[in-house]
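Q: What changes when coenzyme A is included in the input?
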Amino acid sequence: MANVLEKIKASATLLSKRIVLPEGEDSRVVEAAAVAVKEGLAKITLLGNEQDIIAKNPSIDLTGVDIVDPVSYEKTQVYAEMLYKAREGKINKKTGLPEYANVEEAKAGVLKDYTMYAALMLKAGDVDGLVSGACHSTANTLRPGLQVIKTAPGINTVSSCFIMVADRENKYNPDGVAVFADCAINIEPDANQLADIAISTAATAKDVAEIEPRVAMLSFSTKGSGNDDKFFKTVPKMQEATAIAKANAPELIIDGEFQFDAAVAPEVGKLKAPDSKVAGNANVFIFPNINAGNIGYKIAQRFGGYMALGPICQGFAKPINDLSRGCSVEDVVAVIAITALQAK
Ligand SMILES: CC(C)(COP(=O)(O)OP(=O)(O)OC[C@H]1O[C@@H](n2cnc3c(N)ncnc32)[C@H](O)[C@@H]1OP(=O)(O)O)[C@@H](O)C(=O)NCCC(=O)NCCS
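A: The predicted holo structure follows.
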């Protein structure tokens, strides 16, 4: 992990991206802001009231951190107008009423939800990436991005992945780095969503893990060997997803469907899928649903000694990442660096 993270941080320092942290009320985030600036990982915009932040964190040196107070910032009205325009005609699922009846309501909305405020700064191009979630749920962290940042060109699904880093030599993963998806956001993705997940995960593998992706679409079956899937239809789903991803991203090295051993073990790959460029040689793994993905990464972590870096969000038009509420200052710093790489 140390090496991969150090590489990520070194790459981030060369980019000098600006990352917004909307959770100025959280001391871990404030300290991470100071560390990120001191280490030159990114320029930071922290949201909150400057006097309150300093009073609550007297020992943290915030030199070089920009603090923006949405209550008094000159662009708050512009962001409110952007929000109103972006969500015009959208109905709030809970109340059945328009999300924002007018700009004034949108302004009240951005002042109540600093993650939304940060997403609008990102949309406006005033920052390059957004990191939040130290004191907000995943849904509340991602929803503003889903609503106003939307997805990257050619992608309709926001998803997540883990960069898995080996702590010892492993003959089935010679680089010691693999990427698993989607383990945290999409519960039961269909073939189109799986194709998006595969394309986005390959991009994360390249941009953040800095490996050349060879993508395996996983199943309990290899190239049609499983013929007892009449109920769940996972095999045809993974086959269709592979075909869609190939059509949407012809340059991508991707194949499937594979069992995990056919994807990573050259002797099994050769036997079960002799013509495949990916079989026996994969380093990016797309699971058929969140159950398989979440269980899979935790098995690799606990039994396999892999360290899991993530979840890293992907597929947004501009990078947004969700922190775990149990995060440490170091975790926040790492996610700032990852987000900076996604902004390149
Ligand atoms: C992703 C998630 C946060 C979305 O929450 P939500 O607010 O209930 O989503 P909604 O269905 O109301 O959709 C809100 C908007 O986002 C869009 N959206 C939702 N999920 C999306 C996705 N995966 N990709 C792209 N857009 C998405 C919707 O189309 C909708 O757009 P619109 O309002 O402009 O029409 C939610 O699906 C979730 O919480 N997933 C599981 C996360 C989880 O619990 N993980 C466990 C951690 S291990």
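Observations recorded in class: DSSP finds 13 helices and eleven strands in the chain.
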